[in-house]
Write a structure and sequence with these properties.
The chain has two helices and 18 strands. The chain is mainly beta. The chain has a domain at 25-45 and 102-287: Sandwich (Jelly Rolls). Strands 4, 6, 7, 9, 14, 15, 16 and 18 form an eight-stranded antiparallel sheet that branches. Strands 5-8-17-10-11-12-13 form a seven-stranded antiparallel sheet, with no helix packed on it. A hairpin with a 5-residue loop joins strand 2 (84-87) and strand 3. The longest helix is centred in the N-terminal third of the chain and has 9 residues, at 6-14.
Length: 297
């Protein structure tokens, strides 16, 4: 049973619905296993929820409730999709998947074990957990990766490719890759990938070029995004643009290799060590305002 179900009971008692807003990403060239237990380790540096109960953030232009995890800098919603946040029975925030036709994949990890992880987008793509575990994160559960763990999502090539794509995720890096190595966060067989370098920088990889920059603090939660926006590949760390590269627009994905979370696809030889939460894949280029909002706890 998913931990988010606790919010249902809380809603009956207190009316726990607390929505919030969401995100965007930017520069160089590149492209591109699992055992463990669900150790309920408490995260460090975890963002906290600051929304007031009953607040609902709606895009002023479209009026659509959608994706986001916090307010924008001026306190207004800038997202075309605002992610709703509610309180669990134990007081922890529960962040719902965004609403919007552009959302391709939504992984929450608010479950009791790896086998229960599912795609909570309308697409409901099959998810296979290869080891790892579920640990405590900022928003209830997070997936805990060790050097032999990964998740694979069989989305038939629909999770990457095309002129506009966005990958975004919250991560807590617990171990930097070895010298010359990299750690996969989200990857689709070299079409588009999000990695951490041995210098703890974000690297956004496409089949038309690679860009990297920013800094990921070891043991702290960071929000990452890689965005393919037509002729640009962009990387974002904590809602801030850190790098960009001019590229040829990505071609539509033509393979059915599963999307890898916490590793690369399909070799699974660039393991991520740490926690990953709130993975989203969009078939649109999320704006800087949306990504900044998503990166705001």
């Amino acid at each position: 049973m998913k931990r988010a179900a606790a919010c249902v009971a809380a809603t009956m008692l207190w009316g726990c619905l607390i929505p919030n807003p969401e995100y965007q990403g930017q520069t160089s060239t590149d492209s591109g296993g699992a055992d463990g237990t669900g150790i309920g380790a408490t995260s460090t540096g975890a963002p906290s929820s600051t929304s007031e109960a009953g607040a609902t953030l709606v895009d002023s232009a479209s009026g659509e409730v959608g994706d986001g995890t916090g307010p924008s800098a001026d306190g207004t919603s800038t997202s075309s999709a605002v992610e709703t946040t509610s309180s669990s029975a134990t007081g922890g925030p529960v962040v719902a998947c965004p609403v919007g036709d552009a959302l391709r994949l939504c992984l929450q990890f608010d479950v009791d074990g790896p086998a229960e992880v599912s795609d909570e987008s309308p697409n409901d793509y099959p998810v296979t957990a290869l080891g790892g575990g579920i640990a405590e994160g900022p928003w209830l559960g997070a997936f805990e990766f060790n050097p032999r763990a990964s998740l694979e999502v069989d989305c038939g090539g629909e999770c990457a490719g095309g002129a506009t794509v966005t990958y975004q995720a919250w991560i807590r890096l617990d171990e930097t890759p070895s010298a010359g190595g990299r750690a996969g966060v989200v990857d689709n067989n070299g079409i588009l990938g999000m990695f951490i370098t041995d210098a703890a920088e974000l690297r956004c990889v496409s089949n038309n070029g690679t860009t990297e920059g920013g800094s990921v603090e070891l043991g702290e939660w960071s929000h990452l995004a890689c965005v393919a926006d037509g002729g640009l590949l962009l990387a974002y760390v904590d809602g801030q643009s850190v790098s960009e590269l001019s590229i040829r627009p990505l071609s539509p994905a033509s393979n059915s290799v599963p999307l890898a979370i916490g590793n690369n696809a399909p070799q699974l030889d660039d393991p991520f060590v740490g926690l990953v939460d709130k993975v989203r894949v969009w078939d649109e280029a999320r704006t800087p305002q949306q990504l900044s909002a998503s990166a705001t706890p």
